[in-house]
Write a structure and sequence with these properties.
Rossmann fold, 2 domains, binds nicotinamide-adenine-dinucleotide, UDP-galactose 4-epimerase, domain 1, binds serine
């Protein structure tokens, strides 16, 4: 059995995914890697390496010299940060993917996980119950990079037989590691501000409905997809994945059930335009048919968990 390498392991998803995979496979079998030199305290129980996904040769020799046969590639710039540095975002989000896809094509990797996003959809996409196969005209550099990445994943699968699996994650909500610069980050920040100061100024309008998911569901979906028999899978671009949809107003009202004096204000900024281009809700019937996906957390359970742990 080869080892698993998680690149971007110090981030919001990577830190929790590393913990979950180490629990399944053992600490030494799961190597966490990130451009950050310092190992996050959550990950000190297993191997941690500084690795820059932009350094193709360094990544290639690391994979070949450490008996890695599976990579989770999470390093990327998210939607809001990417808009501030489009050229770098495009290079980071695409070049690393090619490095890993090529390693698999050459036979050094058995399997890859690479996340996509609801950002692959755009203003012309049907926005309620967005289907798996639909119009996709993303208007952000992040969305364009994710859509291109999906096309390349499917191409490497169909042309070279590469086993690369992917999910279009909705906005992810968690309390173990902070989010990394996305448009859905408000739905994490709000909990910290609600508890610390009893009020929050939201950068989206009160009625902006977006697809979201509690991190435990996202980690379970990721591992279930990666363990699914290959012959059951019909989607080799990226699976639609649905959890819960809500607006800032609905989230604030749910928080007020626990903190009655909580006040929310609205000052939309450039992220409003990004959010307006994304769907309200997602149809993930391919995921439920192919690998029995079903989310566990609704809005009230998510809010209780977040307020309990923060
Ligand atoms: P994050 O920003 O929290 O973490 C990304 C990690 O990658 C960081 O720790 C960062 O230091 C690391 N990194 C950056 N540049 C690197 C480099 N050159 N080499 C190695 N590591 C580098 O992001 P996240 O929220 O954990 O997202 C992980 C993946 O999931 C991304 O591809 C993102 O697009 C996707 N995704 C996330 C969400 C979400 O809501 N969090 C939703 C949809 C898709
Ligand atoms: N949560 C992510 C973002 O807002 C969606 O991919 O960028």
């Amino acid at each position: 059995m080869g080892k698993t390498l998680i690149i971007g392991a110090a981030g919001q998803i990577g830190s929790e995914l590393t913990l979950a995979l180490r629990q399944k496979k053992g600490n030494e079998a799961v190597i966490a890697a990130d451009i950050k030199s310092e190992c996050p305290s959550l990950l000190i129980d297993g191997p941690y390496h500084r690795l820059d996904i932009m350094n193709r040769e360094e990544v290639r020799s690391f994979v070949q010299n450490n008996a890695i046969d599976e990579v989770y590639l999470l390093a990327a710039l998210l939607s809001a940060t990417a808009e501030k540095n489009p050229d770098f975002a495009w290079r980071l989000n695409m070049e690393g993917l090619f490095t890993i896809l090529d390693l698999a094509k050459e036979g050094f990797l058995q399997r890859i996980f690479w996340p996509s996003s609801i950002a692959v959809f755009g203003p012309t996409t049907p926005n309620e119950g967005t289907p798996q196969h639909t119009v996709m005209e993303p208007s952000t550099v992040y969305g364009i990079s994710k859509q291109a990445g999906e096309r390349w994943c499917e191409y490497y699968h169909n042309t070279f037989g590469v086993d690369v699996r992917s999910l279009r994650y909705p906005g992810l909500i968690s309390y173990k590691s902070p989010p990394g610069g996305g448009t859905t980050d408000y739905a994490v920040d709000i909990f910290y501000k609600a508890k610390a100061q009893g009020n929050y100024t939201c950068f989206l309008n009160k009625d902006t409905e977006l697809p979201m998911m509690f991190m435990d569901d996202a980690i379970r979906a990721t591992i279930t997809l990666m363990e699914a028999p290959k012959e059951n899978l019909r989607i080799w671009s990226s699976y639609n994945l649905s959890g819960i949809s809500f607006t800032p107003d609905q989230l604030a009202k749910e928080i007020q059930k626990h903190i009655p004096d909580f006040i929310i204000r609205y000052e939309p900024d450039f992220r409003q335009t990004i959010a307006d281009s994304w769907p309200n809700s997602i149809d993930d019937s391919y995921a439920s048919e192919d690998w029995n996906w079903k989310p566990a957390y609704n809005l009230s359970e998510l809010v209780s968990e977040m307020l309990h742990h923060i």
